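User: Structure tokens for this complex, please. No commentary.
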Amino acid sequence: MDAFLGEKLFSKRSKNGLMTYVLPKKNFNKVFAMYSTHYGSIDSEFIVPGTGERLKVPEGIAHFLEHKMFEMEYGNVFDKFAELGASSNAFTNYTNTTYLFSATSSFEQNLDLLLEFVETPYFTKESVEKEKGIITQELRMYEDEPEWQVLLNLLRCLYHNHPVRIDIGGTVESIQKIDVDTLYKCYNTFYHPSNMILFVTGCIEPNEVFELVERHENRKNIGVQPPIERIYPEEPGSIHNPTSTVKLDVAEPMFLMGFKDNDVGYEGFELLKKEICIGILLEVLFGKSSVLYERLYEEGLIDDRFSFSYEGQKDYGFCTIGGETRTPERLHKEILESISQNQARGVMEEDFARVKKKFLGDFIQGFNSVEFIATSFVSYYHKKIDIFDYMKALNEVTFEDVNWRLKTFLDFSRHATSTVMPK
Amino acid sequence: MKDIFTHRTLKNGINLFIHSTDKFKTNTFCIFIHQNLRKETATMTALLPFVLKRGTRSFPTSRHLSLYLENLYGADMGGDILKRGESQILQFFMETVNQKYVTGDDIIDSSLKAFKELVLNPVEEDGSFKQAYVEQEKDVLRRNIESLYNDKFNYAIERCFQEMCKDEAFSIYKYGNIEDLKTIDKNNLYEYYLDCLQHCPMDFFVLGDVNEDEMSEKIEKLFDFARKEEKLVKTSFVRKEIKEEKIVEEKQDVNQGKLSMGFRTNTRYGDDDYYALMVYNGILGGGPHSKLFQNVREKASLAYYAFSKLEKNKGLMLIGCGIEFANFDRTVKIIKEQLEDIKAGKISDYEFDSTVKSLVNSFKESSDSPSMIISLYLDGIINGVRESTDDMIKKIQDVTKEDVKKVAQKINLDTIFFLNKK
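Assistant:
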């Protein structure tokens, strides 16, 4: 692999299928490692490997499993990381579950511990019940967060059946149905080395990592597993609901609109290009340098919390646009009108070229942070994208591509709005 | 002590701190203008970065500025307000990509031009700020202040401090308050702005792949404006024994109760026992190894999060957690038991060692982030403490259990704030 921004990436595949990547950063003080499985909240129905059993699991189980992985027979693994002076954490999103630690000493022991605990499920009836209390409080916390609620409601509008419309954490009711047996089934299906990736960056030698992983993985006798069959429900091209409004105890309304992307099915480089292309499109139309942003801001319809983003996966994709506003209906109307006008005349070539420069700069800036590098690498990897192709993909996106996305992606018949109003 | 920043003083008294390093892909520039946190000026101070962001002489609208910066590979530029103890700090920042990764004009020179304009050459109208910008930004700031209400986590923390420090400047919100906005117009704001530039202490940080001498010459030239005598900015520290704790309850239509407990530590950054206090805080609620996490979350299953944190510039500590409404008494009882345990010296080796290691780890990690390096150094400036991260690490490692037990005796619960359901 060529040097990229002065960085070099090293990789190795273990016999059991686990891919390990190391990006050394010699002048950093810390080591940051992520161990991640391609298993998220949308994987709610699948065939249990080996048995052929078709299983539909309770909502929120991937996230619940993440919580329970920290429990070992000897106690809580958080404690072990703390003893080693490291900080550890984990997160679950729609498509993956990732465990991580960050440390400035005892790298080998920390890395060993990370592998060990993620590879060792230990669930008891009692501890599963206890976790329900903790996760209930986590869900209650999100119920009071308007940003989260407005997004959740938008996804419920855009999608009829796809599990992306379900809260990653599930509901207070659904998590009650989770039991030890189902947790093991999910674990055994999705936590196989061939479905996982280990990414390590910071002040560490690649060979040190590879040797440690080899020693560790060879101790276990894990056989090969056939590809996992994930079952997603049939999702119509249309949207489920054009609009949602809820009331929460907030100071002013919060508005979010989104478009459903039906041009899906891509993976790897093509998906990366699409993502960048739509990213450029949204930046040109709604970014701080756009005529629309300036006008909406001056008229007091938005403030600098106005934002937009695109989330693209193999099976689904959507964008979001919005923020706090006094007048959600007017903001909605203005955004649609502006999109129409842009569709009629097309994106300007100079805007396209300038935003490309901004994207390049933002990407380079990201490489300051080992957290950014690891998080991006891992989440792209699960989409079969190599993050080191980013500059190539950015170069290949053409002005015509952006204009084509402007016409096809921003289709008014596939958009919905979500609003949180003050009580 | 090994100081990573080279310190120079510009002719007009601005402090320039430069750290030359090729560790990062970007160059970071930060300006801090220090002001006393006072009701009379807090809202004006807060409004300034918002108004200045709207336009400069050469870039009369925010859009012009954005267009220019995007062409410079998306140089990040902006301003905000920090509150450190009882000082309110106007912050301007800029981050640019290192020239060696891209082609085109000199990025540092071109970006510094815009940065200087942002701070020193606002777009003017009749010898003052532009009326429309001031009025629009007053509205944006008002909404910004109001929106704290949406964020129940921070709302509960802020409210606890407000109740606890009612008669102290610390109770002022960093963005000021809505009533005072009404008294601000373009003229008094502009006068105040000039006054800040002339009299408030100013620190300029540069961190990146730069030549120190060249950089310092550049900045000397660009920021060569006349300044007068600097005023003294300091955070006032109150040592206070609490006779009786205060309980404040507020009701909103929420799904989770938010419990905040505010404490007086009677120890400040710079005191001999400050690092013992850091260890104390770590043992109590500084992570998964802490007493709060272990007892409130893991054992009693009462909360998803339970933490404690220090406001080191003011000598305060805050405990926060999100709980079921009915569990208020039970949670407070468990928390108080943890405090009593530390006071009595009931600290396990595991709790103590893990805390020390975790603090050392986070000090070491801070050198991997430009903003953390600058932020730690800034805290030192505010409190008149000059020490390197190596010094901090050494002092943390020197703390004993006995020190922690001792510092615990000085910590008193002042106010409990509970956000309950209607």
